[in-house]
C-alpha cells in the first residue's frame, strides 16, 4: 500500500464524508431558516405605487395661461424695444427667466397707417412643452406705451 493510501484508512474517510454531508446540509438549511424567520414573503409583498409610467401625449400640451401671458409680455417688450433699422432683418432673441421659455422674433416690420405706428412680427417659443410659432402685432397706444393688438398661434 502506498503511503498516501495508508494515511487515509477507511475510518478517516468516513469522518471526512460525514463532515462534508453536515456542511452541505447546513448550507441548504440556513436560507430556508431565514425565510421561515419572517424574511421575504409573497403575501407581505406590496405594489410600489411610487413609479408611474405613461406615454407622451400625441399633440404638444397647451402652455399654462399664466406662462403664455408672461411670455407674450416678454415678446412684446422685445418687439417694442428693438431698433428695426439697426437689426437689418436679423432675428431678435428673447428669454423669460420666470417661465424658462425662450425663442426668437423674426420678420419684424414697422408700419405707419394714419398716424398709428404698429410692428408686425413672427415669434418662436421654445419651452419644456415643445416649440410653438406665433404671429403678432404691437401698436403704440394713446398713452405712448405699446399694446399687443394680435398674438395668435400658427
Written account of the structure:
- By secondary structure, this protein is α+β, with helices and mostly antiparallel strands.
- Helices cover 34% and strands 32% of the residues.
- It is built from four helices and five strands.
- It has helices at 3-7, 10-36, 65-81, 84-87, and strands at residues 92-96, 101-113, 116-127, 130-140, 146-153.
- Strands 1-2-3-4-5 form a five-stranded antiparallel beta sheet.
- Strand 1 (92-96) and strand 2 (101-113) form a beta hairpin.
- It is rod-shaped and about 115 Å long.
- The termini are far apart.
- The model has no long low-confidence stretch (mean pLDDT 78).
Percent in strands: 25-35%
Give, in spatial order, the strands making up the sheet with the most strands: 1-2-3-4-5
State the helical fraction: 25-40%
Would you tell me the structural class of the helices and strands?
alpha+beta
How many helix segments? 4
Radius of gyration: 39 Å
Spell the H/E element sequence.
HHHHEEEEE
End-to-end distance: 100 Å
Amino acid at each position: 500500500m502506498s503511503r498516501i493510501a495508508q494515511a487515509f484508512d477507511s475510518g478517516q474517510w468516513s469522518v471526512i464524508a460525514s463532515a462534508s454531508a453536515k456542511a452541505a446540509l447546513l448550507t441548504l438549511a440556513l436560507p430556508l431558516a431565514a425565510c421561515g424567520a419572517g424574511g421575504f414573503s409573497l403575501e407581505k409583498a406590496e405594489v410600489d405605487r411610487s413609479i408611474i409610467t405613461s406615454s407622451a401625449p400625441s399633440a404638444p400640451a397647451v402652455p399654462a395661461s399664466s406662462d403664455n401671458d408672461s411670455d407674450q409680455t416678454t415678446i412684446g417688450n422685445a418687439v417694442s424695444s428693438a431698433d428695426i433699422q439697426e437689426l437689418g432683418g436679423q432675428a431678435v432673441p428673447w428669454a423669460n427667466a420666470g417661465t424658462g421659455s425662450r425663442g426668437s422674433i423674426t420678420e419684424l416690420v414697422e408700419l405707419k397707417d394714419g398716424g398709428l405706428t404698429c410692428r408686425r412680427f413672427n415669434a418662436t417659443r421654445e419651452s419644456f412643452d415643445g416649440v410653438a410659432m406665433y404671429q403678432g402685432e404691437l401698436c403704440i397706444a394713446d398713452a405712448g406705451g405699446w399694446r399687443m393688438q394680435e398674438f395668435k398661434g400658427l
